[in-house]
Amino acid sequence: MPMPQQPRVLIVDDEPSVHHVLARWFQRMGFATAFADNNTEALAQALLLRPQLITTDMSRAGGSGLALIEHIRANTSIQTTPIVMISGSASEADRQQAEQLGPTVTMWKPFKPSDIVAVVESFFPREQWHNTALFSTPSTTYRKQ
User: Tens place of pLDDT for every residue, the chain, 145 residues?
Assistant: First the structure.
């Protein structure tokens, strides 16, 4: 019987420290991670890898997270991929636009590893990933849309 494929997450952020922290958390849960720091690279990676989840910062160099979501939602081969929009300070207009574009979850900085676990649990059965004992009880700093 073939081994199930390891779930993949694409982390889109222009800050290496964010890549590192998110990658460590997702890898502890059993995910393979890929990185992009701009929208062009992110879209190419998403089309190539077909990740089960994409995280993107709302505002960063190399294009906004909102623009990336527009491109993903317009591409029929990846338009249903769950997206986690991460934001530290979004205006009300940005928040409304994000909701209209349909990011699946919006997480507001700061967040904890347990928040990532809660997001993953909302998308995937626990059997698809492992080792949640490393994290504490999820908080409510994310919003499922």
Answer: 444 577 899 999 988 888 899 999 899 888 899 999 999 999 999 999 999 999 998 888 778 888 999 999 999 999 989 999 888 776 777 777 777 777 678 888 888 888 888 888 887 766 655 544 333 333 333 333 3
Find out whether 61 and 15 touch, Cβ atoms under 8 Å.
no
Strand ranges inside 1-145, DSSP E = 8-12, 32-36, 53-57, 83-87, 105-108, 142-144
pTM to 2 decimal places: 0.81
d(CA 115, CA 44): 28
> What superfamily does domain 8-127+138-144 belong to in CATH?
Response regulator (3.40.50.2300)
